[in-house]
Each structure stands twice: as structure tokens, then as C-alpha cells.
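Lab meeting, item 3. Inverse folding demo.
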């Protein structure tokens, strides 16, 4: 298998953490696609992923899987156990729900802030920017942090009492927040405490050493 990604990207970090959790790193070849040079928007890459986003998983038979959630579901089933995506029907539903909320309320909102209200990937890549929309999404991300803080006051992990891809998605949000220098509100004590615990996991710690060495 091949993984097309950029090692310091917050979305690629999600798949890299999942690979480490499933002990599958040795089964993949990482192929760098330079975000800062816009290589993910070239015709060659768009032939692999119409959306022009990273990461992308290429299977040995030439099939391409894009989107972090889809890739994680595949890897989780491939390695058995399904610990990251839920073992029971209810767990699967809750994990999917909370992963989507992590994307909408935090990770994707920070991404929009990055691309619209900061220099983003530079003028050669950012062909259109709407600063007001970006700032609105920054504020949405901050509200999302407070939401997850409330969730974590009641349970140990984002989707319940087991580490899952929902936690990985919020970790991606932390990584992106660090990149854009968006502080996590100090009053979000449960969220910050959770993140401190997440950094004790080898899969997370190793990835943070690559993308967010300040942590």
C-alpha cells in the first residue's frame, strides 16, 4: 500500500496515527505530496483524488481511497478488532457521529480559517480567500472546543470510554490549532487534560514530534 500525504499536515496525521495504532506502518510506503507547492492540485494528483486533498491510500490493486474516515475504517477492518471504529453497532454509530462532529465543529473549521483568514498555503495555491468567512469559522472552532470540553467532563474519550478515530480527529484539530497559532481556551480544562493523556500514547507522541514539536 501507498499513502500519499505531507508529513506535517493535520489531516495526514490522522491516518498516520491510525496506522501506528494498528501497527501497519511497515505495510505502507509514504509518498510525499508537497502542499506548499500545490502538488495536491495538479492533474496528476487529481487523477488519484478528485477532491485534491490529502491523504490518499493506494491499494496494491490500484484502488484509491481518500478521506481520513474512509481510510481509517478500511485500516481498522484490515487489521481486525475494529477498535478505532467501534466493536458494536452502537459504538460504530457513536464513533461515526463524534468523528463527524470533530470534523465539522473543530478540524474543518480551523482549516477554513487557515485557508481564508491567514496566508494559508500562499498566493500560488490560495486562489480565493474570504477573510470574514475564515474568522467566522475560527470562532466556530473555539465554540467546538468548548463543546468537546463539556463532552470530556462526562467521559474519558470523545466517543465514550474507548480511544477511537473520533479522538484522532480532535487530535488533528489540536495539531491544526497549533499550526495557525489558535490557542485552546484555558477554561477548557477537561479538553486540555484529555490532550495531555493522548500525548502519552506512542502513536500520538511520535506524530506530534513531527508536526507539532512545541508540544
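The presenter then showed the designed sequence:
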Amino acid at each position: 500500500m501507498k499513502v500519499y500525504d505531507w508529513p506535517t499536515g493535520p489531516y495526514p496525521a490522522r491516518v498516520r496515527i491510525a496506522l501506528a495504532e494498528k501497527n501497519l506502518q511497515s505495510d505502507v510506503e509514504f509518498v510525499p505530496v508537497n502542499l506548499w507547492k500545490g502538488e495536491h492540485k495538479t492533474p496528476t494528483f487529481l487523477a488519484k483524488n478528485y477532491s485534491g486533498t490529502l491523504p490518499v491510500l493506494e491499494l496494491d490493486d490500484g484502488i484509491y481511497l481518500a478521506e481520513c474516515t474512509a481510510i481509517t475504517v478500511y485500516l481498522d477492518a484490515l487489521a481486525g478488532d475494529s477498535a478505532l471504529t467501534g466493536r458494536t453497532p452502537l459504538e460504530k454509530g457513536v464513533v461515526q457521529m463524534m468523528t463527524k462532529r470533530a470534523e465539522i465543529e473543530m478540524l474543518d473549521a480551523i482549516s477554513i480559517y487557515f485557508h481564508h483568514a491567514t496566508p494559508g498555503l500562499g498566493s500560488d495555491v490560495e486562489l480565493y480567500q474570504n477573510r470574514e468567512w475564515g474568522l467566522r469559522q475560527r470562532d466556530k472552532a473555539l465554540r467546538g472546543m468548548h463543546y468537546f470540553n463539556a463532552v470530556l467532563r462526562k467521559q474519558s474519550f470523545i466517543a465514550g470510554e474507548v480511544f477511537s478515530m473520533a479522538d484522532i480527529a480532535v487530535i488533528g484539530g489540536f495539531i491544526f490549532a497549533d499550526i495557525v497559532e489558535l490557542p485552546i481556551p484555558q477554561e477548557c480544562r477537561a479538553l486540555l487534560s484529555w490532550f495531555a493523556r493522548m500525548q502519552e500514547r506512542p502513536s500520538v507522541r511520535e506524530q506530534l514530534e513531527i508536526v507539532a514539536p512545541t508540544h
